[in-house]
Design goal:
alpha+beta; globular; seven-stranded antiparallel beta sheet; 7 strands; 225 residues; 7 helices
Length: 225
């Protein structure tokens, strides 16, 4: 089963792109680094305490969602100009840097999809290259990858994922095939978790309720009542 067949079967109508929370009712939106800020007060100096808190939060969520024997699709959307599609496989550092074994990485699949942001100008000139890799938690250097995702908007920080094609930064989705959960960190400010069944998310809701995004809190609380 490839990632498209899996999504169609278990999350019909869902598109793997930003704002999963607004596409799927069985979902939670978490805010990261509450009460802290990316920069130290009154300066341009990055706040290490903030980034450490964000990292510890997403690591905690990752360990709750993914168990060692779970099957995972690691999916990455690269947004690019049509001219660069043929070159994109060579530049996919998400998999080169963060997948441990060559024989696992060799199973990487690529599919060219329409540009995800269809409300923008010049849509016909751009596309989405979607990469997917079936693996397990232990195949991923997830400690580094999680940091790289949260560092994406802050070039001084390493590791960091970026888009060499000058459009949006890559989006990375962790799809738990075993438990039917999708985990998406959009940047250092927050993340979304969706599941086929709402009860699958109840433990996250109960354990990490203080992290729920305040804008969506009332709606999420009503879901779990």
């Amino acid at each position: 089963m490839n990632v498209r067949d899996y999504i169609n079967s278990h999350f019909p109508g869902l598109v793997l792109k930003p704002s999963l929370y607004h596409q799927w009712e069985q979902s939670i939106h978490f805010e990261l680094g509450k009460e802290l800020y990316q920069f130290k007060s009154g300066t341009d100096e990055l706040n290490a305490e903030y980034f450490d808190q964000v990292y510890q939060q997403i690591l905690s969520l990752f360990h709750e969602i993914f168990l060692p024997n779970d099957t995972i699709f690691l999916v990455t959307n690269i947004y690019q100009n049509n001219h660069y599609v043929r070159k994109s496989r060579r530049k996919m550092k998400v998999y080169h840097h963060y997948i441990k074994a060559n024989h696992v990485r060799a199973q990487l699949k690529q599919e060219d999809l329409p540009y995800m942001f269809d409300d923008e100008e010049d849509v016909e000139d751009n596309c989405t290259s979607q990469f997917s890799l079936r693996c397990r938690k232990q195949d991923i250097r997830f400690h580094l990858l999680l940091k790289a995702i949260t560092h994406q908007d802050f070039p001084p920080l390493k590791p960091r994922i970026h888009n060499p094609y000058g459009l949006y930064e890559p989006d990375v989705f962790f799809v738990n095939v075993t438990r039917n959960i999708i985990f998406y960190i959009y940047d250092d400010r927050g993340c979304e978790v969706i599941a086929k069944d709402l009860e699958t998310l109840r433990s996250l809701y109960e354990k990490y309720g203080d992290w729920i995004d305040e804008y969506d809190r009332e709606e999420i609380v009503q879901r779990f009542k």
